[in-house]
Amino acid sequence: MSTYTKALIALSAVTLVMYSSLVATGVWHLVLGPDHLPPFDLRVLGYTYFDARAYLSLLTPEQAALYVGTLRKMDTIFPLLMGLWIGMCLWGVTRNLHPWSRLILLIAPASFTVMDLCENALIAEMVRSGPDALERDLVALASAYTMSKYVTLFVAFGLLLVMIVRTVGATGGKTKP
Question: pTM for this one?
Answer without folding.
Answer: 0.90
